[in-house]
Protein 1
Amino acid sequence: MKREKIFNKIKSLRQELSNHNYNYYVLSQPTVSDYDYDMMLKELEALEKEHPEFQDLNSPTVRVGADRDNTFMQVKHDYPMLSLGNTYNFEELKDFDNRIKKIIGPETSFKYACELKYDGTAISIKYKNGKFFQAVTRGDGEKGDDVSDNVRTIRSVPLQLQGNDFPVTFEIRGEIIMPHNVFKELNSEREDIEETPFANPRNAASGTIKMKNSAEVAKRKLDAFLYFLLGKDLPSDSHTENLNKAKIWGFKISENNKQANEINEVFEFINYWDKKRENLPYDIDGIVIKVDSKYLQDELGFTGKSPRWAISYKFKAERVASKLLSIDYQVGRTGAITPVANLEPIQLDGTTVKRASLHNADIIKELDIRINDTVFVEKGGEIIPKIVGVDKSKRTSDSAETIYISNCPACNSKLVRIDGEALHYCTNSLACPPQIKGKTEHFVSRKAMDINCGEATVNALFNAGHLNNIADFYKLTFEQIYNLEGFKEKSADNLLESINQSKSIPFERVLFALGIRFVGSTVAKVLAKSFKTIDDIMQANIEQLTETDEIGERIAESVFNFFRNELNIKIINDLKTAGLQFEIIESEGETNILKGTKFVISGTFTKYSRNELKQMIEQNGGKNTSSVSKSTDYFLAGENVGPSKLEKVKKFGIKIISEDEFVEMIKEQP
Ligand code: IVH
C-alpha cells in the first residue's frame, strides 16, 4: 500500500472505532459485535506498529494505557475549580431562589438546570481542535495534577470529537466515577489478598485516577459524566443547550438532566431522585441546581469560593441510632482481626441492620465506642453499615471504656500489631481454627480450585477432624463424606468428583489457592509465568523475587516466609503427591528460546509497546525483571534511556540489545 493510502486507512479505522466507542460507552447502544470491534482495533494496532510515523496520542489504541510510571505535572487551571455551596433543606433553596431574583430583578425570567450530583472526583479536560489535549484534577482549585494518560483510558471520554461546530479550544468539566459493579469487583479482589478494601466508590475513583501506571487505571473501568463547559466561543447562552451540543460531539452527558421553570419544579426533581437514586448503578450524593443562562451566571458572579448562580442540595445520608449490644472479634484467613458491632436490630435504607463494622482498634478508641452506648449507624457505598459516632448524652454512669482484646478469641494466642498497620493479627496460623477454615474456604473458592464445597461442608469436615489443612481434601474417603450430616451417596460422590477434577486446575490458580498473604490472582499469575514451577519459586530469595516485574518487597517477603515454614512445605509435598499442577503449561505459540535469561527493558520503542515486548519475552521462556543487577542477561534498550541506568549496565558488562536485535533473537530457527 502507498503511504498515503495507509494513512487514510489508519484515519478511517480511528474514526470508525471512535464512533463505535461513542455508541457503546456513551449511548450504551452498540452497533457492532465485540468481535468485529476487536478485529478492527487489532488491524489499527498492526498498522500503527508498522508505521510509527503515524502514531497519535489520541488514537483509540491508547485506551489500554501504558505500562510505565506517571509522575504528575502540576498545571494551573485557566479558570479556578470552585466548589458549590451546600443546602440540606427546601427552605435554604427558597433563600437561594430569592437571592437570585433579587439580584437579577423580578422582570427577568430564567430557568434552572437540575442535575445529579455525582459522587466521584472532579476533572477538567481541555480540547484543542477537536482533540483531547489535557486532563487535570481539581487539586487545590488553583492548580491540579496532569492526569491525561490516565483519563485517556476512560472509554466514555472522547479523544477525537465528532462534527465540526465545536470551539477551537474549550474546557469541559465533570466527575470521574466508579460504577457499583466495578467497585464491588475491585473490592472483592482486594479482599482476596486481605488488602484493605476501598471505603466507597468515591475513594476508589480518586485513588485510581492518581495511580502511577495507566495500564492499571485502564483495568479499573472508570466512567465520567461531564456537566460544565468553559471557553470563549461556546455555542449557546444556555448551559443546557451547550451540554446537548457536547453530547453530539461525543461526551457522556446525563440523560437525567432537567430544566425547571421555577423552584417548585426543582423540588419535584429532588423528591424524585431522593427515592430513585438507589436504582442508579453509581453513587450520587445530591442534586446540583444551576441558573441556565451563561449571561445571568456572569451577572450573578461569585462569593468567595463558590458561584452565586449554582448550589447543591445534599441528600441526608441515612443515619439511625441503635444500641451497641456487644463486639465480636472475627479472625480472617490470614489471622487479621476485625471488630464487628452487634446492634439492636434497626431499619436502615429498607433493610434490617444487626451488625456494623467497627474497623479497627484506633477507630474504637477515637470515637470512644463502648458497650451499651447509643451509636449512630450509616450506610454509604459501603458493603456493610458502619458506626459513625456515639450519642454520649445517652451514656449511663456504669459505662466502661472498651479494652481491645490482646489474645485471639479463637485460639487464645497473643495478638501482634505490625508497625504502621491498622489491624491486629493472630500469628498462630497453623492451628487457629478460623484461620484453617478460612484458608480452606479460600482454597475451594471459584477463582481458586473451584471445588464444590460450601462453608457448611468445610465446617462439618473440620469438626469431624477430617480437614486440618488444605492437603487433607485429597485424602478424604467416601465414608468420611457420606457420614456427614446431610450427605447421601450421590452428593458424596459429587464432592469426591469435584475434588478429583481440581487436580487439573492450572498452576497459577493453585498458587493463588495456597492463600499466601498478598498473593492475589494477578500476582499469582505473574509469579507462575515468571518462575514456571513451584520449586523455582520456593528456592527464590527475596532479591530474586523483587527482581521480578510487579513484585515489590512486601509481596516478596511474604512469599519467601511462606516457603520457609515446615508445615507449608509438608502441605505442598502432599499436594504434589496428590497430583496437583505445580508447573506452568506452555501454550501454543510459546517457545523456550529465552529459557533461563533475564531481561530489563528501558526507554521508548517504535515497533512494539513495552507491554508487548514483555509478553514476547515471557512467551519465549525469558524473565522480565525490574532493575539491573549482575544477574541480568540482556538490557533491551529503546530511545531515551537514562544515563545512570546505562552506566550501571556497562559496569556490570550486561549485553545491550535493540528492539530489532531482540526480534531477530526470538525468530525460531527453521
Ligand atoms: S458544577 C462552579 N455539576 O460537586 C461549579 N458539580 O461541590 C462547578 N459535582 O467540585 C461544579 N456533580 O466535583 C457540578 N452535576 C454537577 C456535579 C458537580 C458533582 C461535584 C464537583 C464539584 C462539587 C461541588
Protein 2
Amino acid sequence: MPARNILVINCGSSSIKFALVREGRDDFILHGLAERLGANGASLRWQGETDEQPQTLELPGADHKAALARLLPLVAQAAQGKLHAIGHRVVHGGERFTQASRLTDEVLSAIRETSPLAPLHNPANLVGIDAAMALYPDLPHIAVFDTAFHQSLPERAYRYAIPEPLYREQHVRRYGFHGTSHRYVSHKAAEMSGLAVGDSYWLSAHLGNGSSTCAIANGQSRDTSMGLTPLEGLMMGTRSGDVDPNLHSHLARTLGWSLEKIDHMLNHDSGLLGLSGLSNDMRTLEHAREQGHANAALAIEVFCYRLAKSLASLTCALPRLDGIIFTGGIGENSALVRNLTVKHLHVLNLELDGEANARCVRGVGGPIHLAGHPRVLVIPTNEEKQIALDTLAVLD
Ligand code: ADP
C-alpha cells in the first residue's frame, strides 16, 4: 500500500495549527497556523516541504470555518488529492476515551458532554471538527485525546482525597494532559536506548507554555502532574501550578476577590510571568537573568526546583528508572533549565555532560548525561506525528 497522507488539526479558541503528515516520515509535507480568528487581523501562515520561506495570507474577518475553507485546498494540493483521513486533537476525553476514536454522532456528543471539564478547550476543538467535517464529509475523521494516555493511571494516583460522591457524580478526579507528547517521547526514548517499550521505565518532563511531568511504565502512564484541569502540578508560563487549596478562600475573605478573578490570576497572571513580573517566555527570562534581573533569576530557580521535586515524587510510581526525558520548547532548548533541575536530583545520582547538554537545542536531541550516570535524554516532541500515528491505527 502506498504511504498514506493524514491531515492533523489542532484547533484553539482563536487559532488552528495544522500539519500534513505522510506515513513513515517525521517531517511534514505542509504545516502552518491560522491565528487571530474571529478578531481583527486574522491571518494564515504555511510552509511546504520545498518552500524556503513561510507564506502568509491575510484573512480579514475569518472565523474557523473560513480559515479551514482557505487552508484545506492548500492541503489537498500538497497531498496531490490523496488525503486519507483527518486527525483532530481533542483536549479532554474524560473517562470515556482511553484511545483515539472515529468521530461518529455518538462520539461527538460524548465530547460535548465532557466540555464542562475543559471549558476553554473542548468547545474550540469541536468548532474545528464541525467545520472540517462539513467541508470533507466523506473522509474519516478521528479524535485523538490529550487525556487518553493517562487513563491507565491506577486509582491511587487519580483520586483526590475528597468525598467520594464528587468523583462518582461529578467526575472530579485527576485526568492528566499532554498525553500525546509523553507517549511519543517515551517510545522514542526506548528506541534510542535499545530498550523494549514494553520493558522500560521513564520520567518525562514536557516543558512548554503549559508543562507537565509523567511516569511511564512499559509504555503506560502511571502518574502525571496535571489533574482535573491543566493548572495542577508544575509552575508554567502564566499558570501557578500547585498552590495551597485554601488560597481561594483566603483571597476571597481578605481581598473580596471573585472566583473568576482568582481563576484568571492563577491561569494567566502567575507562573514565570507572575514571579518575574517580566515575561512568561523562558528565553526572555534567561536573557534578563544574565543581565542581573533578580526576579527573573528567582522565577527560573522556582521553576527548576518545583520541576525536580515533581520528578522525584513521580519515582514512587516506578519500580526502576531507565531515564529522564526533557521535551517541549523549554525542555528541548534550555540547557540552563536542564542543568539547574538535574542539580536538585543528586540523590538519584544524576549528572550531566555539560557539552552534550549545551549541544541539544533547536531540534537536536540525544543523551546529555555523564557516562556512568543514569540516562538523561533530550527528545524533540512531535505531537502531530503521534496524532497521525493514532489516526492510522484507528483506520487500520
Ligand atoms: P507551547 O506549550 O505553546 O507549545 P512551546 O513548547 O513552543 O510552547 O514552548 C514555549 C517555551 O519554550 C517558551 O517559554 C520559550 O521561551 C521556550 N523556548 C524556546 N526556545 C528556547 C531557547 N532557545 N531557550 C530557552 N527557552 C526557549
